[in-house]
Amino acid sequence: MKLIVIGPRGKMGKLITQVAAEREDMELVAGVAPRGRDYIGTDLGQVAMVGRNLNVPVVDDLESVIDSCDVIIDFSTKEMAMEVVDCAVRHKKALVCGTTGFSEEEKKKFQDAAAHIPMLYAANTSKLVNIMNKLLEIVTSSVGDEADIEILEMHDQWKKDAPSGTSKEMGEIMAQAMGKKLDDIAVYGRHGSSPREKGTIGYHSLRAGNIPSSHTVYFGFMGERLEITHHSYNWECFARGACDCAAYLAGKEPGFYTIKDVLNL
């Protein structure tokens, strides 16, 4: 399958390019960078620090290269992602998007796009994070109404959105298991006098140094607690998962797919 990577100089785009370059089932055909970058026109292998030239260009115009690909992987910015999904729909190309920080209206664009293209949106492409999500669903279905649920998530100092898209997805999964909506029960941090309200999900976001990603969900009871935690040591697990998502989409019919489909969860 032929692949285009959006944002090949970013922390995720770089790793996705490196992983895809080593896969026998993938051929990189272009990298697409934001306009005005000084590396436009150079080789994708150099830009993504693959260690060798790939004889593939980095361009700033997706329209100029999109017809050469089967699937696009986009882990860029939410502004760029809006342009990418529109272009993918126009050219009927499959899209994997792992960018986060979207409003509900912006998220709807991906749902709408699925009527025309194979569309896979994943706030987190790690295999183990998504297995953790399954565990959270099981636990919450059993004890959600009894437990005090708190989410602690940690990321690097450059993380733009808070809480993380992954922790929001975790909250949505648990809220759904309790028959509720996350917007109705989420509490973001605490200050001053704020006793805990039963049935809520608490969020706490830490941003420091170069912490890659860490999520812990606490189920608190009187005299005991259950913790479910995922730590990533670097971002390679997300890059490998993103490439697995792209491989899954190749040849699929239009529709909205999730990483659960990829992992058969």
Q: If you had to describe this structure to a student in words, what would you say it looks like?
A:
- With 265 residues, the protein is of the alpha/beta class.
- The protein folds into two domains: 2-121 and 236-263, Rossmann fold (3-Layer(aba) Sandwich); 127-232, Dihydrodipicolinate Reductase, domain 2 (2-Layer Sandwich), CATH 3.30.360.
- 35% of the residues lie in helices and 24% in strands.
- The protein has helices at residues 11-22, 44-47, 78-91, 104-113, 127-143, 165-177, 182-185, 236-249, 259-263; strands at 2-6, 27-32, 58-59, 71-74, 94-97, 118-121, 148-155, 186-188, 201-207, 213-221, 224-232, 255-257.
- The strands form two sheets. It has a seven-stranded parallel beta sheet with strand order 3-2-1-4-5-6-12, with helices on both faces. It has a five-stranded mixed beta sheet with strand order 8-9-7-10-11.
- NAD(+) binds at residues 7-12, 98-100, 122-125.
SSE topology:
Blueprint: E1 2-6, H1 11-22, E2 27-32, H2 44-47, E3 58-59, E4 71-74, H3 78-91, E5 94-97, H4 104-113, E6 118-121, H5 127-143, E7 148-155, H6 165-177, H7 182-185, E8 186-188, E9 201-207, E10 213-221, E11 224-232, H8 236-249, E12 255-257, H9 259-263
Parallel strand pairs: 1-2, 1-4, 2-3, 4-5, 5-6, 6-12, 7-9, 8-9
Antiparallel strand pairs: 7-10, 10-11
